[in-house]
Write a structure and sequence with these properties.
about 120 residues; alpha+beta; 5-stranded mixed β-sheet; 4 helices; globular
C-alpha cells in the first residue's frame, strides 16, 4: 500500500520483450492529481514501496499514469493506453532521475533506489 500518495489504484504488469528471458515491469498508475508535480510525488511513493518489495526491488520500472480510478473505466488496462497523461518527460525532470517521454517514464533499478532513499 502507498501511504500518503494520490494513487487511486495500480496495475503491475510483467511484459516480456525478447521473451522469455527479458522481463519489463510496467506500473500503470491511476492518480488523483494529474499534474506533473502530483504524478512525480506518486512515482516517488511507489518507488519507496517497490524498493522494499522482494519481487520489485533491484528491477527497472516503467510508469504510465492516467487520471482517475480503475473503476472509472470499463477496461482499466486499455484506459492507461488510450488516456495516458503526456507529462512523463516533465515528471523525470522533477524527479531528477529516469527518462520520460510523452506517456512513459523509465526508471533504472538505481533510479528506484535513489527515489526510495529520498522519500
Amino acid at each position: 500500500m502507498v501511504q500518503g500518495a494520490g494513487v487511486n489504484g495500480a496495475i503491475v504488469e510483467v511484459q516480456h520483450p525478447g521473451a522469455p528471458w527479458v522481463n519489463k515491469i510496467v506500473i500503470r498508475l491511476f492518480v488523483a492529481d494529474p499534474s506533473a508535480e502530483g504524478v512525480a510525488s506518486d512515482v516517488r511513493a511507489v518507488a519507496a514501496v517497490a524498493a522494499s518489495d522482494a519481487d520489485l526491488s533491484d528491477q527497472p520500472l516503467t510508469f504510465i499514469a492516467v487520471e482517475g480510478s480503475p473503476e472509472d473505466f470499463s477496461d482499466p488496462l486499455t484506459a492507461t493506453i488510450t488516456d495516458s497523461l503526456y507529462i512523463m518527460g516533465s515528471v523525470a525532470g522533477l524527479l531528477g532521475v529516469g527518462s520520460g517521454t510523452e506517456e512513459v517514464l523509465d526508471l533504472s533499478a538505481d533510479d528506484v533506489r535513489t527515489l526510495a532513499a529520498s522519500s
